[in-house]
Write a structure and sequence with these properties.
AMMECR1, Dna Ligase, domain 1, four-stranded antiparallel sheet, disordered N terminus, AMMECR1 domain-containing protein, single chain, five-stranded antiparallel sheet, Glycoprotein, Type 4 Pilin, AMMECR1_N, AMMECR1_domain, alpha+beta, 5 helices
C-alpha cells in the first residue's frame, strides 16, 4: 500500500506574517467599521496570489474561539485568509461572535495546507500504524460525511488510536465504525501563530 507522506507547502515566516496581518485587518475592520475591505492584491507577491487552501484558528485565553477553513481554494490565498479570518471570528456557529473586549487575549493562527493526498489504507489498524510515525493532518470521508483534523490536533490527541476515534466521531460515526469505503487523505501545513495586538508570530 502507498504510504507516502505529503510534503510541506513552502511558505516562509515573512510570507506567513503577511497572511497573519491580513487576518488581523479582516477582524479589526469588521469590528471598527463593519465595512468589508478586501486586501489590495497588487501589494502581494504572486506566490500569495495563487489559490491555496487554509484554516484560520482563533483562541481567547488559550480557549478555542473559532476555526474555519477549507481543503480546496477557489481564490487567491490572501483572499482565502481574509475571508476565513472573518468567518472564524463571526460566523463559526459553535461560538458567539468575537467581541472587542476579547481582543487583548486573542491569538490568531494561520495554517496553509498542502494539497491533500490519498493514502491507500486497508484497515483502521493500518491507519493507526501509519499515524504512529507520521503526525500529519488527516481527512476521513465516506459518502456525505467528512471530518478533518489539522496537524496541530496531535498536541491535544497524541495517541493515534485516540486521534482516529475522535476524528470519526467528528464526522458523525461512532468510535468503533470503520468501512472499506472510507477515503483517507493526509496533508501538512505551514503555520504561524501570533497575538492579535502584536502579531509577533511563532513559526512552525
Amino acid at each position: 500500500m502507498d504510504m507516502s507522506v505529503t510534503s510541506y507547502q513552502k511558505f516562509n515566516k515573512g510570507e506567513l506574517t503577511q497572511l497573519l496581518d491580513i487576518a488581523r485587518e479582516a477582524i479589526r475592520g469588521h469590528l471598527s467599521t463593519g465595512v468589508i475591505k478586501t486586501p489590495q492584491l497588487d501589494l502581494y507577491h504572486k506566490k500569495l496570489l495563487a489559490p491555496s487552501a487554509c484554516f484560520v484558528t482563533l483562541e481567547v485565553n488559550g480557549q478555542l474561539q473559532g476555526c474555519l477553513g477549507s481543503t480546496v481554494a477557489y481564490s487567491p490565498l490572501v483572499l482565502e485568509v481574509h475571508n476565513k479570518a472573518r468567518a472564524s471570528a463571526y460566523e463559526d456557529r459553535r461560538f458567539m461572535p468575537l467581541t472587542e473586549d476579547q481582543l487583548d487575549d486573542l491569538t490568531i493562527e494561520i495554517s496553509v495546507l498542502s494539497e491533500p493526498q490519498i493514502v491507500d489504507i486497508e484497515s483502521e489498524e493500518a491507519l493507526i500504524e501509519f499515524l504512529s510515525s507520521h503526525k500529519v493532518g488527516v481527512i476521513l470521508s465516506n459518502g456525505n460525511k467528512q471530518a478533518l483534523f489539522l496537524p496541530q490536533v496531535w498536541k491535544q490527541l497524541p495517541k493515534p488510536q485516540q486521534f482516529v476515534r475522535q476524528l470519526k466521531q467528528k464526522a458523525g460515526w461512532n468510535a468503533a465504525y470503520w468501512s472499506p469505503n472510507i477515503t483517507v487523505k493526509t496533508f501538512t501545513v505551514s503555520r504561524l501563530k501570533g497575538k492579535y495586538n502584536t502579531i509577533k508570530g511563532k513559526y512552525f
